[in-house]
From TrEMBL:
Involved in DNA repair and RecF pathway recombination. It holds the Pfam family RecO_N. It comes from Vreelandella alkaliphila. The keyword DNA damage applies. The gene is recO. Residues 4-69 form the DNA replication/recombination mediator RecO N-terminal domain. Keywords: DNA damage, DNA recombination, DNA repair. This is DNA repair protein RecO. Belongs to the RecO family. It comes from the Bacteria.
């Protein structure tokens, strides 16, 4: 097959000198492949297979586990550190967990590319992450329904929480105002004051798909926050 754009999501040792990698590709979504020599010190495969590096890749194989045939850089690695790095690791982790193998997800690829451009700038991180999370939910056909469980309109004065079973919202004293949820539904996520509500909605919508195992990247974020408070 011809080479296509990709990013490394996850890499781990495989046998003696190879690596087992998960890649986010433009046309084929997430693929899993063996990179021969990917763990050998000094190998070109190991040097190129780095997180946040734009790649061109090609592979062979009809089964779920492919064999990488070509790995070439197509741009500069995003230079991430601190919170920006942890946000990038979070994006890689949830994409690896959520995307089924070989499910085409061009919008996820596009928003991931935009996310890497945004992460070095603190003011741009949160919104870019929310856009990426939304793209993942759309691919899974799991976006929230901004209505009541029976399809009714949200009351601007009532507070709601996300209901996993219906993917809609039910009244809750400690929930999010219906007015705020309506703003989120409109897709204009720029207004000041939406950030915390938007994050809460995304986290609630993603939770049932991520499962019970804690996200390693989220634990690292919490650890960083605790250190800053000292």
């Amino acid at each position: 097959m011809s080479a296509e754009p990709a990013f490394l999501l996850h890499r781990r040792p495989y046998r003696e000198t190879s690596a087992l990698v998960d890649l986010l590709t433009l046309n084929h979504g997430r693929i899993r492949a063996v990179a021969h020599g990917g763990q050998r010190p000094g190998s070109k495969s190991r040097q190129r297979l780095q997180p946040f590096t734009p790649l061109f890749v090609s592979w062979r194989g009809e089964r779920e586990l492919k064999r990488l045939m070509l790995m070439e850089s197509r741009g500069q690695t995003a230079l991430l550190a601190g919170e920006g790095l942890l946000c990038g690791l979070y994006a890689n982790e949830i994409a690896t967990r959520l995307l089924p193998l070989e499910l085409a997800a061009p919008e996820v690829f596009a928003f991931y590319s935009a996310l890497l451009e945004a992460l070095p700038t603190p003011a741009n991180r949160a919104l870019a992450l929310r856009r990426f999370e939304w793209a993942l939910l759309e691919t899974l056909e799991a976006t929230p329904r901004f209505c009541t469980y029976d399809g009714g309109a949200l009351d601007p004065q009532t507070r709601y929480r996300f209901d996993v079973a219906s993917r809609a919202f039910v009244p809750a004293e400690q929930g999010i105002e219906g007015r705020t949820l309506r703003y989120i539904d409109q897709g204009d996520w720029q207004p000041v004051g939406l950030a915390s509500a938007l994050k809460a909605v995304m986290r609630a919508a993603l939770a049932p798909h991520l499962g019970a195992t804690a996200l390693r990247s989220r634990e690292l974020m919490l650890d960083l926050a605790r250190r800053r408070q000292r």
